[in-house]
Design a protein that fits this description.
Elements: E1 3-7, E2 14-17, H1 22-36, E3 44-47
Antiparallel strand pairs: 1-2, 1-3
């Protein structure tokens, strides 16, 4: 099981566990984008 860390241009890191449902990640990422509603944030996805 891998950790999927979303490094935003923020002083903290949002981490989620891979539960085998790729759709979950797509929805989660969409929620994060809507929540921030910012054009100047950097999103990096790192698979560990």
């Amino acid at each position: 099981m891998k950790d999927l860390n979303y490094y935003l241009n923020l002083p903290y890191t949002i981490s989620v566990k891979k539960l085998g449902d790729e759709e979950y990640f797509a929805q989660y990422l969409d929620i994060v984008k809507r929540f921030l509603k910012s054009n100047n944030f950097l999103l990096k996805i790192k698979l560990l």
